[in-house]
Write a structure and sequence with these properties.
The protein is an all-alpha fold and 187 residues long. It has one domain: Tetracycline Repressor, domain 2 (Orthogonal Bundle). The chain is built from nine helices and no strands. It is globular. This is TetR/AcrR family transcriptional regulator. Keywords: DNA-binding, Transcription, Transcription regulation. It holds the Pfam family TetR_N.
Length: 187
């Protein structure tokens, strides 16, 4: 790969990273191309060297945002080998995760949009749900019961973070995280 092609790939990746963060913070409809390109340190005019349309950029960034969570989930589960499920729950329901949607799990921020989105977005969202379900179920014994338990756990994790971000009362926000974590770890 020549220097200009390598530079183009780096620039494209930078735009994708900026967009992935921004859609986790603001949703799929808010960030404009000019703002995204400026934040990535590029001109608006160079956009079409990297993407065919805004929809193309958003779709690729959404898929990236969703996929980035896998490594974080695996790392959280691996921190304590004897209690990997508890480690995953604690990391997901952490106040830092709640307070940093731009770097947090995209299942929380993109769920409603995926439900209304096109087939590609739904498929990317589904892939991430399946990945997390496999990870969580694998922490137990991969049985049918473990899969059902994984579905309950993932739904509670995503729902608790979503609600903790949405309520106005900081005390209730903290309580949602703490109570759900406590109940999930008892299961």
């Amino acid at each position: 790969m020549g220097h200009s092609q390598a530079a183009k790939a780096v620039s494209r990746e930078r735009v994708l990273q900026v967009t992935a963060r921004r859609i986790r913070e603001e949703g799929l409809t808010r960030p404009g191309v000019a703002d995204l390109m400026k934040e990535a340190g590029l001109t608006h005019g160079g956009f079409y060297k990297h993407f065919t349309s805004r929809d193309d950029l958003i779709a690729q960034a959404a898929a990236l945002a969703l996929a980035e969570g896998s490594a974080k989930m695996e790392q959280a589960a691996g921190k304590n080998e004897q209690r990997s499920r508890a480690g995953l729950i604690d990391a997901y329901l952490d106040k830092q995760h709640r307070d940093a949607p731009g770097t947090g799990c995209a299942l929380v921020t993109l769920g409603a949009a995926a439900g209304r989105g096109d087939q590609d977005l739904k498929e990317a969202y589904e892939q991430q749900v399946r990945t997390y379900l496999d990870l969580i179920a694998g922490l137990d014994d991969d049985s049918e019961e473990a899969r059902a338990e994984a579905m309950l756990t993932l739904s509670a994790l995503v729902g608790a973070v979503l609600m903790s971000r949405a309520v106005a009362d900081p005390g209730l926000s903290d309580e949602l995280l703490t109570a759900v974590a406590d109940r999930l770890k008892r299961r």
